[in-house]
Write a structure and sequence with these properties.
- The protein is an alpha+beta fold.
- 37% of the residues lie in helices and 19% in strands.
- The protein is built from 22 helices and 19 strands.
- Strands 13-14-17-16-15-18-19 form a 7-stranded mixed beta sheet, sandwiched between helices. A 5-stranded mixed beta sheet has the order 4-1-7-5-6, with helices on both faces. A 5-stranded antiparallel beta sheet has the order 8-12-11-10-9.
- The chain is flat.
- The protein starts with a strand and ends with a helix.
Amino acid sequence: MSASTIRVICYYNGHIVRTKTDVEYEGSETRIVPLKIPIECTFQELIDMIYSKTIIDKRRFKLVLICKYPLRNGNRFQPFEVRDDSSVREMLDLVNTTTIEEIELFIKVVRVKAQLNQCVGGHEDVFVRNHDNVAQFDYGCGPSSGPVPDTGLNADDEDSADEEPNDEYGEDVDDECDGADADVEVGRHASFLRAFNQALENEQGVYVSAQAPSCDVSNHPDDETLDESSPVTYHLPPTPQFQHVENLDIAVASCWTPWVQPTTGNSSGEFVIGQVFNSKSDLQEAAKIYSIKAHQEYVVVASTKKLLVLRCKKAEECHCPWKLRAMVIKDTSLFVINKYTGPHNCVNPCLNRDHHQLDSQLVSTHIKALIQAQFTLSTAAIQASVMEKWGYQISYKKALDGKHKAIRQLFGDFSQSYTQLPRLFLGIEQSNPGGAVVWKTCETNMPNTEIFQFVFWSFKPSIEGFQHCRPVMSIDGTHLYGKYKGKLLIAMGCDGNNQLFPLAFAITEGENNDSWGWFLACIRNHVTQRPGICVISDRHPGIMAAMVDPHLGWATPFAYHRICMRHFASNFMTRFKDKILKNLVCRAALASTERKFKKHMNTIGRINSGALQWLEAVPFQLWALSHDGGRRYGLMTTNISEVFNSVLKGARSLPVTALVLLTFFRLNGYFVARREVGANRLASTEQFTPYVDAQI
């Protein structure tokens, strides 16, 4: 490196990861480009040099430059945005003012939004004049009835597109977009968090006051994800915001359509030549809604990234002329209808109970807002909603597939959620240090690949706060209802105001000796080492075995095991099926003195001696308050665990990443609200909690 140049290492095609002390650039496809930057380089010269070396399309993407900037107090780094000439000089001067020999520059690639005041392909007008000749349909449907827009494709392109093979089943073919953009992925995660926070408020607004904006459930949730990379001559409204289910009908609107409330293209509900859609998926959705409302069906003649051709399903049978042809506008994702014949003239429309175009993708769009409002929306409710909306009875499988697609769009993919789980926990640990995350996996023959078994997590406020709670802990397990079954294990405490205190969580393959022993060992090693803790649970064999295992730290006298009275009474009812005896068992368990306890036990013995023998076989200190020795602090059930289970009920049918985030947001809401209440009581010179004051 000469004295007149500075060596700069540019990173791109990845993402920036920031910690308290460092800034790194990560990504499986990260690329590095070394540059020699002149000392007198300007910001524009630097940008041009990066464009030329990285071969990033200047017309479609803009660059955001982040420098890894060293701080003077120790070996710490922070991001520094390079945005003008002065910041470029500040960056290059680091070689002279610090000990670093080369500069690390992180490049964030941002898609350029469409400039709506320019033209397409250098043409002054998008549409041909009304007096221009209009071509006939290639498949012999006669002349079109309106102007044909210039799609930017030449005749050879159209002919080659027509030669695509037909879809014999007449189903839409969804094509994948070429390439991938890091900022699109970032936008997708941001959209997920907004959707999650909105759903969180709808489901249990009393627990968390999310500050994120309301969820945008349009086809393009984030501006960064819009693929409108080329300018156009007309002002195109965005894809409809399906905030309410009623707005689903308004799938298309264009500025040149004069109708106040268009249903598809005009007041009669028909498409029009020259009508533009934001994407191919928008056009497909509009065609589906049109066909459902008309009680007609179509088949797909051709479907590629540049072309979509539809015709009536009864074209040969009834000689129906309905056909639609649309093509992509060059260098954009916009689709324009250039040939159309309609409406249908079929004599027998579709009278089936189901409709071919009413597929799971359309169902998912319809129920997305409903899923946000209620995680646990049943399949039967989805079928009823579709019937009310369109008058068709869809199958159970189609409704279930639509629900899974809506959940995947809002909260991520079930399969990928387990792959994303380590990164999620890493982010939580970095932003909230002091917590605990423990993994248990199985090794495989494939390198860098392990099979998930268990994961345990607890947050720092829970670990520190439990030191000031009663030495009582309730544990319970509940089912996960998503695509992949499993168990969620929960440990809860009880604070000084007699409120539940979330302590620890784990996701396991099931409830057994191994999972419960591992969960309790994680609590003992990473959450609390307090002696004499009372653990309340049901009589699951895995819990019973773990509580007497001397190697796990929960055997007496280090801890004391107690049985939930409600579960114990339920076990008794299953064995003897007598409600009177069950009530007497509950009275005996709740008796505060041994005299009352013996009285109820004698009554049970007189009614059924076998029931008395069954009760006496279980040590009294496990289930009777009078023999407890004060370990329970009056807590007779695992209700504090089951209450939190009900809080998580909806999320148990979501991907595991959403479930983990829900525990994070719930606990954040708990601790923020209770800290404010505690601070207010201390400020008013109150010495005790409201619960203690009421008891006094």
